[in-house]
C-alpha cells in the first residue's frame, strides 16, 4: 500500500512510517511531497495521506498522528504507548510530558538538517525508532549509572558538590519564569509560550527546565501551571462586567468557550458562569 505525507519529515512523519512498516503494512511504500500537493496526489496515486490536515490519519485533540495510528489499529503494546508520549511531546513542543521528548526532537531535527534526501532520512529514522522501541521494551526502567559503578561514584561526588553550593532560596529562573508567563497573560493572551520558548528566553536547557519545573511549582507540570495561570487571569477579568464569558475565554487563550468551561471546571470545580455569580454575591 502507498502512504503519502509532507516532505522533509522530522518526528511524527518518521515515527508513523516506522510504525506502519513494523506493525501495520510490511510492504508499505512511502511518498514525500510538498504539503499543498499531498491530498491531490493521494487521490491520483491511490495512496493514504497522513499527518496532514483533512486526512483521517492526523493529529486529534492534543494527540499526535502516531497516537491516532495506535488507536485506529488497536495497537496496545505498552512499549508503543510509552513511545507515543515521547513522540507526542517532541512533535508538539510539549517536552514536559516526557523527559525523553526534548532529546528525540533534538536528534530528529539534527537528522533532518544533515540528510537532504527524504528516503535516506526515513532509513535513518527507522534505525532511530528501532532503538527507541528496544529502549521502551527493555531499558526504560533502568538507568545508565546502575551498570557503571565508577560513573555512579563520580555522579555522587558531583551531587554532593552541587548540594554544598546550593542556596536555600529558589533558583532565579523560577521568579523570571513566573514574570514571563504573567507578561504573556497581560499582553499576548492568544499566544501563550511553550516550555521550549521559555527555556530559550531564560537561557536554560529545555530538558533541565522540564525536569526541575514541578519542584518549584507546587508539583504541577508546565501545562498544569499554564492552565492554572490562565484560569486565575480569567477570574480577575470576571470583575469587569463589560467582558462576556466568550470574550474572557478568548482573552485568556482558549480556543472556544466550551474548552474554557471544561478547563475552568477542572481547575475550580465550578463552571465560569456559576463562579462569576458567586463572586458577584460577595
What's the helical proportion of residues?
55-70%
Strand content: under 5%
Strands side by side in the biggest sheet = 2-1-3
Number of self-contained structural domains: 2
Average predicted confidence as pLDDT: 86
Radius of gyration: 22 Å
Report the total helices: 14
User: Structural class per helix/strand content?
Assistant: mainly alpha
Keywords: DNA-binding, Transcription, Transcription regulation
Domain HTH araC/xylS-type: 175-278
Protein name: HTH araC/xylS-type domain-containing protein
InterPro entries: ChrB_C, Homeodomain-like_sf, HTH_AraC, Tscrpt_reg_AraC-type_HTH
Provide structural commentary.
With 282 residues, the chain is mainly alpha-helical. It has 2 domains: 2-139, no CATH class; 172-281, Homeodomain-like (Arc Repressor Mutant, subunit A, Orthogonal Bundle). 63% of the residues lie in helices and 4% in strands. The chain has 14 helices and 3 strands. Strands 2-1-3 form a 3-stranded parallel β-sheet, with helices on one face. Strand 1 (2-6), helix 1 and strand 2 form a beta-alpha-beta unit. Helix 1 crosses helix 6 and helix 12 packs across helix 13 (257-268).
